[in-house]
Amino acid sequence: MTQVIYDATYEGWLTAVFEIYEYKLGDIVFVKNEVSNSLLFSTTHFVTTDPDKAKRVLSGLQKRLSAEGISNIYKAFLSEVNQIEETMFQFVKYVLASSINIERDLSNSTVLDIKKAARLTGKESHRMEAFVRFKLTKDQLYYAIVEPDCDVLPLIESHFKNRYADQRWLIYDAKRKYGIYYDLENVATVQLQFNPEAASSKFLTEICDEKEEFFQNLWKRYFSSVNIESRKNMRLHLQHMPKRYWKNLTEKIPDFKK
């Protein structure tokens, strides 16, 4: 078995695919950033991300797949489901070995798995577009904390750039420890360690605009007023707004944490 160690980026994974073919590596497993000690008796192949190699793999796939098919591979990568890199590689092998477009061959488990993973990421990105709740800091930066199941920040940045083009904002993924920051012109990826006490009343008092608590309470009152108690369907509510999102939703926090 060969551990193919890459930098956890999509471009790095594409480079790895190129080198698997280039060096005729067999029985491979993808590992992010460092050697896995759990794989005994394995060899290692370290991948240095190469834009040219990545582009060649992507170009080969674009000749055989639709734009949706290419998008599904990327979304599958962002899904972070277990062993998705290996599933993607099996999909790529099937694509490159076929003389026809295989996207609709749902009898093939790999094709089906890629579609499922892509659908999962797409669903999560749509939820994040709806569930992001910004807070305003004293220096007029709108920030929001999210913890999506999939790595969806690359998919939602255009939505927020277009919708909030006149405001500086930061959306931070607490699960993956990075964020996307908009400076009124461009969106950039930022790496930072966010304060774990960001939801506490003391922290909010220190960094938030003086009117922020007022507007949050106003939003909670609005949410409460449109909620018709006699028509409450908690099962349906949880289906559209699962509990795992609640701790970052203003309307679901009855009061600032102490």
TrEMBL record:
Residues 83-251 form the DUF4130 domain. It holds the Pfam family DUF4130. NCBIfam families: SAM_7_link_chp (TIGR03915). This is TIGR03915 family putative DNA repair protein. It comes from Flavobacterium azizsancarii.
